[in-house]
Specification:
The structure holds two protein chains of two kinds. By secondary structure, chain A is an all-alpha fold. Chain A is 80% helix and 1% strand. Chain A contains 14 helices and one strand, in the order H-H-E-H-H-H-H-H-H-H-H-H-H-H-H. In chain A, helix 6 packs antiparallel against helix 7, helix 11 (215-236) packs antiparallel against helix 12 (243-264) and helix 11 runs parallel beside helix 13 (267-292). The chains are: A mainly alpha, B mainly alpha.
């Protein structure tokens, strides 16, 4: 099938002789790339090894003794970092390509064992005493430093997660929805603060050109956390007049994220904004209908409202997409 | 038969093919632009993120629209009969056909959502009908046949991968239930029949995909082949055979032996190796990846019955072996050899821009607690669910 297409295009004059020759060459010497397979194996290897070592340590704690284990973990950690310091490319505030494939994974292994080391130290010897904050604060700082110094997006995600842990919340969207306990005001405000911090970090990253490609991670977590916690706040204050404040903040945030995403041409964030604010508007519609029409027809009207607004959004999405592509 | 404009499909195929050449600088941009203008594609084909958004919103619309109709018809008692979902399914399908004609969607999310929703409504209504007929002996058989036929027809019309997958699975389910009717003999020979069905299906799909006429169904055929290969493996997997054998004979799961068990152990262990071997030999990504995944499944199966090593030693050892293995291969393939390379493939997908890898690391490592005795109760751990998006509809 394929050679026929090329020959036909060539005969019709769309492809020049030299181009056709290049295409022929490519099909003659086609290489089979096993890049992703090998990368997956590497990643699995790191995960299995660190998981296995963890359980090994846990089960044999009585026989090998804490010092030996700590020494071993420290050794792994130091070994990994020694390798990374030796092979790294010079630091820059822009994007730095990693010197080789193994590098990223060795760095990952080193960081995980560093976190384990500190956790172990605290668990066994209470190095930080009852000051639990410190026990999470120090690995967090270290992780942020590693992420920036070696330019590793995965470790940045780990650092953000441990920042969340330090503040007493969790960050990945899956966990937010799975374990998120939005049943008291304190935690909701913590989440809002955390989301705002991430959004500010994303803004600063962009504004001052500090590792610009890190913006996506900050923005991604920030947008999810901020929207979900604001919606939680809205439901928490559902019966008090402050609800209007929460809604106002949600829509203000939506406008901000939307404008930013439009500038960046990132359709992912535009879609997030649209979906979150659609959900918020549906909540508002429900509230209005609930007060307005306890009479017959209220539910039908509400359904109709949901349908029409969703149809409107579909047209909006299609249009924005067209505009973004044209721009 | 197929709903899409055939000429556009053909043009789309050509443009996609040449786009890869243009990205790899094998043809000039001017040549590519000429080809593109000479081969117009009128479909609406948005990117993956837009598709997800359109899919979600269309599904919401379809749900509320059918809900509204049902609400309006509540007083007439039409809603209580299986005819109602069938009717709604047909309405949805009509809307889908109309939209396809007017807007030329091409797997754009809107059409996917309507297609799946109407298929579910229609099939659900028919299954309801079948259950109402109280044909206890053959109702599963009928349902499987119905889903298989419905999804096959829809696949022919829309060339959609999900309906393809559904129809394949329904087909294998049909074979299974039909053969189970053959009594004790059927139960004893079940794995072999399933293997034959799956193997036959694979060769059938493979034969079709080398046919020129199937070019519009390339993705569907790939999915069909993948499902056939997995079924072929599952039909002889020791764990699957053991459990199904127990279920069919009414035994509990403490029975771990099956007649001719060694055949199934051989099958469990060798088939992934064969897949990987075929993948390497034929340079076929599909075989290679399926083989790798099934190898992991085989290890898990084996471990379920024989505990040769404690789990932690196994994890550590396998981690080390995997690291060493992949490291050696990467070193070896630094310069391309015997047609293999470690270089990244030319084509870069949209998903790269979302930096999936970073998010996966964030998701899988963030549960590692930095300090085990962190006072998680500080904010009232609890198990409350629902997050912020608790429903108020």
């Amino acid at each position: 099938m394929e050679p026929e297409i090329y020959n036909k295009l060539h005969a019709e004059g769309y492809i020049s002789d030299s181009s056709l020759e290049k295409i022929r060459q490519k099909h003659l010497h086609q290489l089979f790339s096993v890049h992703w397979e090998l990368k997956t194996l590497l990643y699995l290897g790191v995960m299995l090894l660190s998981g296995g070592l963890g359980i090994l340590v846990y089960k044999n704690i009585d026989t090998i003794g804490h010092q030996a284990i700590l020494a071993f973990i420290a050794l792994v950690c130091i070994g990994c970092f020694a390798y990374c310091f030796k092979h790294k490319h010079p630091f820059s505030w822009g994007k730095v390509k990693s010197p080789n494939t193994g590098f990223d994974y060795i760095l990952l292994l080193g960081s995980i064992s560093m976190v384990t080391f500190v956790g172990y130290l605290q668990f066994q010897y209470q190095v930080f005493g009852l000051n639990y904050g410190m026990a999470t604060f120090i690995p967090m700082l270290a992780l942020f430093f590693i992420a920036y110094y070696f330019d590793h997006l995965g470790i940045l995600s780990m650092a953000i997660a441990s920042l969340a842990l330090w503040m007493g919340v969790s960050v990945t969207p899956k966990k937010l929805l799975a374990y998120g306990t939005f049943n008291n005001k304190e935690i909701i405000f913590t989440y809002v603060l955390f989301g705002a911090m991430l959004l500010v970090a994303a803004y600063l990253t962009q504004r001052f050109d500090i590792k610009k490609h890190f913006k996506f991670s900050y923005h991604h977590y920030g947008v999810h956390v901020a929207f979900i916690s604001l919606l939680a706040g809205y439901f928490e204050y559902y019966d008090s007049p402050y609800y209007i404040l929460w809604m106002a903040v949600i829509f203000a945030l939506a406008v901000y994220v939307y404008r930013d995403a439009y500038k960046e041409k990132s359709f992912y964030f535009i879609l997030l904004t649209i979906l979150y604010s659609y959900f918020a508007s549906c909540c508002l519609m429900f509230r209005v209908m609930y007060f307005m029409a306890n009479s017959t027809g209220g539910a039908e009207l509400l359904f109709l409202g949901f349908i029409l607004s969703a149809i409107g959004l579909i047209f909006l999405i299609i249009n924005i997409n067209k505009k973004l592509k044209a721009a | 038969m197929i709903i899409y404009n055939k000429e556009w499909l053909n043009n789309l195929h050509i443009v996609d093919l040449l786009k890869a050449d243009q990205q790899a600088n094998r043809i000039t941009t001017a040549e590519f632009d000429n080809i593109k203008t000479a081969h117009p594609v009128g479909f609406y084909i948005p990117g993956i993120i837009v598709r997800v958004g359109l899919f979600i919103l269309t599904l919401i619309i379809a749900l509320f629209a059918t809900g509204l109709l049902s609400l309006l018809g509540l007083s007439t008692h039409l809603v209580d009969s299986p005819g109602w979902p069938i009717f709604l399914g047909i309405v949805c399908y009509a809307a889908l056909e109309y939209l396809m004609r007017e807007r030329h969607y091409f797997h754009s999310g809107v059409d996917n959502a309507l297609l799946y929703y109407s298929a579910c409504l229609f099939a659900g209504g028919c299954i309801w009908l079948i259950i109402d007929m109280h044909l206890n002996s053959v109702d599963t058989l009928l349902c499987a046949a119905l889903i298989c036929i419905l999804c096959t027809l829809l696949t022919f019309r829309f060339a959609d991968v999900v309906t393809t997958a559904a129809s394949c699975i329904a087909f294998f389910a049909f074979v299974y239930f039909a053969w189970a009717k053959a009594g004790q003999f059927g139960l004893a020979t079940m794995p072999f029949i399933m293997m034959m069905a799956a193997g036959g299906a694979y060769f059938f799909f493979n034969r079709i995909s080398s046919n020129k006429a199937s070019v519009n169904y390339t993705n569907c055929l790939i999915i069909a082949k993948i499902i056939s290969l997995i079924t072929l493996y599952a039909a002889g997997n020791y764990f699957v055979v053991n459990r199904l054998n127990n279920a069919l004979n009414g035994l509990d799961d403490s029975h771990t032996t099956i007649p001719f068990g060694y055949i199934f152990w051989l099958w469990t262990i060798l088939l992934p190796v064969v897949y990987v071997f075929i993948g390497i030999k034929k340079k076929n990504t599909m075989f290679l990846r399926i083989g790798m995944i099934l190898a992991a499944v085989s290890v898990a199966t084996f471990r379920n019955y024989y505990h040769l090593l404690p789990i932690e030693i196994m994890l550590t050892l396998s981690g080390m072996i995997l690291l060493a293995l992949s490291y050696t291969i990467i070193k070896y393939l630094k310069i391309p050899r015997i047609g293999f390379t470690y270089a990244e493939p030319d084509e870069t997908g949209t998903l790269d821009s979302l930096n999936i890898e970073g998010l996966v690391i964030g998701e899988t490592t963030s549960h590692l607690p930095p300090a085990a005795n962190l006072p998680t109760q500080r904010f009232g751990g609890g198990t409350g669910g629902g997050g912020g998006s608790s429903g108020d509809f």
